[in-house]
Amino acid sequence: MKNVIVGILTLIIFGLMGWTYSNGGAYNGGEHGKVIADLGNRTTAAVQDSEPQEKSDREKEDEALNALREKAGNINGFKVSDAYKSKCSSCHGVDGSGMQYGKKLMGPKLFGQSADAIYKKLDDFKSGRKENMVMKGLLLHMTKEDLRKFADEIGEFPARAKALK
């Protein structure tokens, strides 16, 4: 009985393979291959046209992201640690002034908050008392001492800014 069931399943599988092959193959071109080739031809034709094309949503998002990166890397006048730059500045700005992407808040303003208040918030994010997956992921492997260093550094931002004036 087992041999009969296996034989029927084998015939069904070979039948499906033949049907797929007769329809142009699953990943060997077929309809999907024609669509991809057509997209490639459109892209090539668009590059060759001298008329300026309206930017796609992806291009607009890339430009906005590059603007955020530029702001994160160039706005401050006072020195911050490399750890702060790599972990915090992309959302909160290098000077802690906060960042926005359109109408969406990326990271709130940290500038002007006390070191103790910042430490409490960092500890709350790390422990899960405050929910933010990005913050929790960034703080997951940090020690209490690391959190204190970040809090102390951020708490010093107003004094650092004042020293430059």
Q: What value does the average pLDDT take?
A: 77
User: What's the total helix number?
Assistant: 9
Percent helix range = 55-70%
Q: Uncertain spans, ≥5 residues at pLDDT below 50?
A: none
Percent of residues in beta strands? Answer: under 5%
Largest sheet: 2 strands, antiparallel
> Radius of gyration from the CA trace?
28 Å
H/E element string? HHHHHEEHHHH
CATH class of the domain at 57-164: Mainly Alpha
Q: What is the straight-line distance between the termini?
A: 90 Å
The CATH level-2 architecture of the domain at 57-164 is identified as Orthogonal Bundle
Beta strands, count: 2
Morphology call: elongated
The CATH topology of the domain at 57-164 turns out to be Cytochrome Bc1 Complex, Chain D, domain 2
Strand order of the largest sheet: 1-2
Structural class: mainly alpha
Structural overview:
This protein has 165 residues and is mainly α. It has a domain at 57-164: Orthogonal Bundle (Cytochrome Bc1 Complex, Chain D, domain 2), CATH 1.10.760. The chain is 65% helix and 4% strand. It has a two-stranded antiparallel sheet with strand order 1-2. A hairpin with a 2-residue loop joins strand 1 (99-101) and strand 2 (104-107).
Topology:
Blueprint: H1 2-22, H2 30-48, H3 57-74, H4 82-87, H5 89-92, E1 99-101, E2 104-107, H6 115-127, H7 133-139, H8 144-155, H9 157-164
Antiparallel strand pairs: 1-2
Helix pairs in contact: 6-7, 6-8
Task: Provide a brief overview of the structure.
The chain has about 160 residues and is mostly helical. Helix content is about 65%, strand content about 5%.
